[in-house]
């Protein structure tokens, strides 16, 4: 049993290490659930429970300073205790929600504590000690997986027998109530996703997705493909070629022809000292952008950590290195998926600064600050509001049937475009510099991309209440043999109207800024009470 607890703790620590792994969704319940099932000898149950929890926590993403319930600790412990007890997803739900809320408090405390280390970062920067900055960034980043790993291990060692005994005493009516509540909780995830995209302009596409799945029974993959086509037609993205570099730039054409040590074409006519290997290191290090996230300077140490290989090559004196480190330890925050564009541009500007004595160093931070907001809006909408929604829709629909293909497709659908774009943007940012943003601005591609992402994302979210929620009422009108099922009447009016109505009810409260924790608890109470009173099944 001790070995089992140790392996489950490693899974939780792996999930909490995602801040070093580039926001690749490896920490999601849909991914960790099967790993827990594998350790406990029931991988199919782990897949199903992971998919169930993924639906509930689908909208729980860390955007800005919003720290959602900790689905990693809650998911691992909830899944583990549910499999150990043999009671399935209902028990996982009952345990995962309160555990995730408690774990969130611990993580928030860590994010409050981390700014204490900023003085140490500043001292390293003043001394030009880039090794100290790197070391402290990594050590501070490891605090989260170590701390939450300890919490997980303690809970497993103290709680497994107690939880198993507790679960065995749960009466059937409580179990049924938990199942109904579990069917309702995905409405919160859908509402949180709607909050990212929903407005009067694109609202019809939400209902289009709902209608296509409710009436035509369109599967999620087909709906996603149709959504892409509609988004392209409506935004007109395919109607105009977008220049992203000057006409004489052959960087993209010759992108694959560089050897590891060849120098890349510089943003100016002068010879570059940076190689493809140097620029690739920016991409690799950007994966740890959020490892030391804190509530004061946010991603600043992650940005400095990412660009240090370039600074080492450009600046040979401690004074120059100190100045560069202090520049990049200023406040920074953007969507991690598109961060490499800014990192690449900053590398090009640092190279120009090292070459030209009269270069305005302040312009480097000015460009960073100017780009991080707009790019955050674009890439948050693109990846959190669109790609992740599609990946989760496809993945959970398969995983709920016990198919391992669900988690696999979930990761592939999200990370193939994510990692490819993240890698390419590093080189595009370095090669084209600020010209890229000027070209995109002239062609309105940024606006079109945001609109297209909202259209596609809302179509998929609109389909989710119909495809991934099951809320029905056993009520009947009349008596004896003449009684008419209320559910049949509702289905004739609008199929899946109860999941749709609940999703909009939760969305209303989300718009009113009601805390996610309260909404979670409210849905639990509604589902449980509705089951006990015979209103829902």
Automatic annotation (TrEMBL):
The keyword Transferase does not apply. Keywords: Cell membrane, Membrane, Phosphotransferase system, Sugar transport, Transmembrane, Transmembrane helix, Transport. It comes from the Bacteria. It comes from Dyadobacter pollutisoli. One of its GO terms (biological process) is phosphoenolpyruvate-dependent sugar phosphotransferase system. It is found in: Cell membrane. Its main location: membrane. GO terms for cellular component: plasma membrane. The chain crosses the membrane at residues 63-84, 90-117, 138-158, 178-198, 205-234, 389-414, 452-473, 493-510, 517-536. Pfam families: EII-Sor (PF03609), EIID-AGA (PF03613). This is PTS system mannose/fructose/sorbose family transporter subunit IID.
């Amino acid at each position: 049993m001790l070995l089992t607890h140790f392996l489950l703790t490693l899974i939780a620590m792996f999930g909490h290490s995602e801040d070093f792994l580039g926001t690749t969704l490896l920490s999601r319940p849909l991914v960790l659930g099967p790993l827990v099932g594998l350790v406990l000898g029931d991988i199919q149950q782990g897949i199903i429970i992971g998919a169930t929890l993924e639906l509930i926590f689908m909208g729980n993403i860390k955007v800005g300073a919003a720290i959602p319930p900790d689905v990693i600790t809650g998911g691992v412990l909830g899944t583990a205790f549910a499999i150990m007890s043999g009671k399935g997803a209902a028990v996982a739900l009952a345990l995962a929600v309160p555990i995730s809320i408690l774990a969130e408090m611990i993580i928030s405390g860590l994010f409050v504590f981390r700014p204490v280390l900023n003085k140490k970062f500043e001292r390293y920067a003043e001394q030009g000690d880039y090794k100290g900055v790197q070391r402290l960034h990594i050590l501070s980043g490891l605090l989260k997986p170590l701390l939450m790993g300890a919490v997980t291990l303690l809970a497993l060692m103290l709680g497994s027998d107690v939880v198993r005994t507790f679960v065995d005493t749960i009466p059937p009516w409580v179990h049924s109530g938990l199942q109904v509540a579990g069917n309702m909780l995905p409405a919160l995830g859908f509402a949180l996703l709607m909050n990212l995209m929903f407005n009067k302009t694109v609202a019809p596409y939400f209902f289009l997705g709902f209608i296509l799945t409710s009436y035509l029974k369109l599967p999620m993959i087909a709906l996603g493909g149709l959504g892409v086509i509609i988004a392209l037609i409506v935004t007109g993205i395919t109607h105009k070629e977008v220049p992203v570099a000057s006409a004489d730039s052959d960087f993209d054409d010759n992108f694959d022809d560089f050897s590891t040590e060849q120098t890349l074409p510089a943003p100016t006519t002068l010879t570059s000292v940076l190689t493809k290997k140097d620029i690739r290191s920016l991409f690799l290090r950007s994966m740890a952008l959020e490892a030391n996230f804190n509530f004061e300077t946010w991603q600043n140490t992650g940005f400095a950590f990412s660009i240090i290989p370039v600074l080492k090559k450009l600046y040979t004196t401690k004074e120059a290195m100190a100045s560069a480190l202090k520049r990049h330890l200023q406040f920074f925050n953007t969507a991690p998926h598109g961060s490499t564009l800014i990192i690449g541009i900053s590398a090009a500007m640092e190279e120009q600064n090292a070459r030209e004595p009269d270069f305005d160093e302040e312009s480097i931070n000015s460009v960073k600050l100017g780009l991080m907001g707009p790019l955050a809006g674009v890439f948050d909408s693109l990846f959190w509001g669109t790609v992740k929604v599609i990946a989760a829709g496809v993945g959970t629909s398969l995983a709920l049937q016990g198919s391992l293909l669900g988690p696999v497709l979930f990761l592939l659908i999200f990370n193939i475009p994510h990692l490819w774009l993240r890698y390419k943007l590093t080189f595009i940012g370095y090669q084209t510099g600020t010209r890229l943003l000027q070209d995109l601005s002239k062609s309105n591609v940024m606006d079109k991309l945001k609109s297209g992402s909202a259209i596609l994302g809302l179509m998929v979210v609109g389909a989710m209440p119909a495809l991934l929620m099951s809320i029905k009422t056993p009520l009947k009108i009349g008596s004896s043999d003449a009684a008419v099922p209320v559910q049949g009447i509702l289905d004739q009016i609008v199929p899946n109207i109860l999941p749709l109505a609940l999703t909009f009810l939760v969305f209303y409260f989300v718009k009113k800024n009601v805390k996610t924790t309260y909404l979670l608890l409210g849905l639990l109470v509604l589902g449980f009470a509705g089951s006990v009173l015979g209103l829902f099944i």
